Amino acid sequence: MPQIKSAKKRLKQSIQAEKRNSAYKSRMRSSRRSFNEAIESGDLEKVKEAYATYCSALDKAVKNNIIKRNTSTRSKRRGAEKVRALETAN
User: Fold this and answer.
1) Which terminus of the chain, N or C, has fewer Cβ atoms within 10 Å?
2) What is the CATH number of domain 12-89?
3) What whole-number distance in Å separates Cα of residue 42 and Cα of residue 64?
């Protein structure tokens, strides 16, 4: 345990940030899971709705410095490819 006052404060801040960050990461992963489940079902309307939710979760994570911008862009691009593939299949 820290002995110095500033170290105690830093520990407290880091614990709070960890909780906040884990909430964003959880939201991001949950939306990705529901998007992939929608892809499996093949319902185009449900897929587009899940994709929008997934993109929103990624954007919020980027805004709060949870993930990097390029990681978000790459994930959204891969999701868009899956949506396009499903559209052409139907």
Assistant:
1) N
2) 1.20.58.110
3) 32
